[in-house]
Amino acid sequence: MNVSSPEFVFVGIFFLGFGGPIFAAKVWTHYRLKKGRLALKNRKLADESPVTPFDPKPEPAPGIVLRRFNLPQRSYLRRQGRWANLGYVVGSWVLFVMFCENLPPQMADSSGLALTLPQRVWYAYLRVGFVFDLCICGVAAALFAVSAIQRRSSIDLKSLRMRPLTLRFLFWSRTGLLLAALLAAIATAALGFFLLMLIFYGPVWNHVPGAVAGQGITEQQAHYVISTLQTSPMRLVLSLLTTSTLIFSLVAVIRSLPWSFTPRSQSTLATTLLVLYWTIGSMLLVLFPIWGTESLQVARVLFLYNDKDVGPAPSYAYALIPIAIAAALLRLAQFIDGRREAP
Amino acid sequence: MLSLRISTSSGVPVYLQIEQQIKQSIASGLLCAGDPLPSTRRTAADLRINPNTVARAFQNLEREGIIRTVPGGGTYVADFTASGPGLLKAEKLRRLRPLATQLAVEAFQLRVASEDLHKLLDGAMLELEKPRKVRKSISSEEPQEGDL
Amino acid sequence: MTPFAIQTHSLVKTYWVGGRKIRAVDGLSLNVLEGSIYGLLGRNAAGKTTTIRMAMGLARPTWGTIEVFGLNPARDPERVKVLEQVGYVPEDKVLGGGTARSLLTLNRAFYPGTWSDELARKVVDRLELPLDATNLSLGNKTKCALAVAIAQRSRLLILDEPTTGLDPVVLDALLRLLVEDCTADGRTIFLSSHQLTEIEQIADHIGIMDRGKVLVEGPLDDIRSNFRRLTVTGANLPTRGDSILNARRDAHATQYVIQRDPDAFALDLTRNGAAIVDSAPLSLNEIFLALCGTSASQETAGDEDEETNPGVPA
What are the pLDDT digits (tens) for C179-198? Predict the structure, then answer.
């Protein structure tokens, strides 16, 4: 495997994208720990009493949005907001790195078509890369949903149920914030990706060739290539968002159902693995027309981008369908969650 | 100087124990007329019992005229010379009657003879007189006879 | 406007555990007056914690009702009104991770109307709670949970086994604190425990629970005066009766534990020629043992009596 092979590039970006931040985080925590220990030692030397009496800072004044809520609600929202914020930062970086796996020229389509490099990159992305990205976003959505609905035995859940907040508020604030974080992460990552694509290759999606030539390429295949290249980024991003929302809501419902087998099977790891398996599996089923044209129809209705679909792209109005389904599923999840008894 | 002790296993209701002990302190001279009593809240906290119980005891005592509360706050032992003659003998006997009945019932159950019961009563009243005599002798600084 | 802080009517709660149905609470009728200090006593699986969780809305009744200040704690929006007025120390004393300081800071935001920082400081001081320790021992977890609940200054304080892991000095400090700061303005304390000595001291109302039912409930003084142990000699003494909780007979005398109107019973016996050798009150511990032992083995006790003296009139 030489330096410019696709696999090497893929792995290279992977490690740079994730290894870098992890290494930086480790260095930072190590430094912080050292500083903390030093400070403690100094304090002990100075024989200061280390315990200060309980004197909390007053709550910061609420902003315009938060003013609509009372103090308990604001406190809860702030906490969930921090968590969602973390999810956004981590999520957008991870997704961005994964999206950018498709950028380097090594990833371009190498099937011998007479297209320019940028066009080949775009074509490869649309044929394979985007499907991969869609699956990654689906997995991210599933993970966010698993985090949104706390498992039944969680301490956090129990202690929140003891506070004067309505169950409806508890559910929607947490789920809503995490969903918003997910969608924002996807949008940010996609924006970054398309920006980079624009910088490196120019507006590829506007330069569609009139005809495609190549070794042994049929009329039909040429038609297919052209129509594929016409896909607009807007549609892609919208498809990402709606599909992720749909998967998020599905996983939320599953997670909130009262599984009554052993507590161990309710552990986060087990649920996460189950969910991942299920998510990837179902996505692959829909994306690869195992059922022939039926799955294509499903994909169209759900506004799911499908590279096998050679017809005209579904109108933007179809985007409302997965959104509506997701809303209904979330409402169901809220209902089930409300009926749950705290541990 | 008031020191109360509540016994949870004596079978006597707590508020009654408080009342009895305060009355005993007054009778034995530990508390004199005009002495302040700690507040309901303070007494309850010291005894680790519900303030309502203490309040009930204090209310009963006040109704009997043994203690009085000042509107500004504070509870004091009432002045006997003021309340004493105010109560008719009949009223005093009426108050003591249920106690006498209870004593009689207990004695009957335990098959205690009447004269033994009278001896018991005399002995108890004698016990009560002793501290008073001691206090009077100390305050007047005279040698005391018939001590103990 | 109900005078009861907590009230249940024939409350039932069933659980499915491993395929079997368990009645944790079985027709419970509890009445906790506002302004009282109510002690709920019972053995380990009596259903105390289940009842408390239903009062907090953490579990839903299978049958019957439970009301806190006349409101239903299982259904929003009444549930929120209930939770605003109730401070709670759960049985497992776990409120979340972190130091005591962070937990206190977190929780104070939820009760803006009633929380008192000063009271929090007082509790931390009196109970000797380490504010910044991370790995809390059981006793410290209890102290932390107590601090969070007491500083709330709530109208009703529900404490589920609040004495776990506390040494006698801290325990005494806790009792004093409860009396000093948690009873003003007609506030109610509801505690469940099997530390009978502490309950006996501080509570003015108690309820004794066994197998999901209330056996005895009422002002503690009344209950104490209703129970009496009588040692009686004489012939043809009864062993069964409405006010007899149990009777033990040996060669010389019969020992009764009376649960109702002991004076009337004693009078009745003496009128019929029996002699009462001893008459003593029962401590709460003895009452508890007599009641909770009785309900489990009533048949065997009856059989024993039949064996020793088959011809005794009831």
Answer: 998 888 889 999 998 788 88
The dihedral sign for the CA sequence A149, A150, A151, A157: negative
- Which domains can be identified in chain C, with CATH numbers? 4-218 (3.40.50.300), 227-308 (no CATH)
Instruction: Please state, in angstroms and as integers, the Cα–Cα distance from residue C234 to each residue in A149, C259, C308, following that order.
Output: 71, 21, 16
Q: Which residues in chain A touch residue C104, judged by CB atoms under 8 angstroms apart?
A: 54, 56
By CA distance, what is A59's nearest residue in C?
C109
Summarised one tens digit per residue, pLDDT across range A228-269 is 777 778 888 888 888 889 889 988 888 887 765 445 545 666
Q: What are the structural domains of chain B?
A: 1-85 (1.10.10.10), 88-148 (no CATH)
ipTM of model over 0.90: no
Q: Is the pLDDT of residue C296 over 70?
A: no
Give per-residue pLDDT as tens, B41-51.
889 999 988 88
Instruction: Give A263's Cβ-side CA count (13 Å radius).
Output: 6
More confident residue, A224 or A18: A18
Q: How far apart are CA C95 and CA C203, in angstroms?
A: 26
Q: Which residues of A touch C (CB under 8 A)?
A: 50-56, 59, 70-72, 74-75, 79, 155-156, 158-159, 161-168, 341-342
Is there a domain that residue A14 lies in?
Answer: no
For residue A173, the distance in angstroms to the closest alpha carbon of chain C comes to: 16
Question: What is the residue range of A303's domain?
Answer: 71-339
Find out whether A248 and A179 touch, Cβ atoms under 8 Å: yes
C-alpha distances in Å from residue A182, one per residue of A247, A254, A274, C210: 12, 18, 20, 51
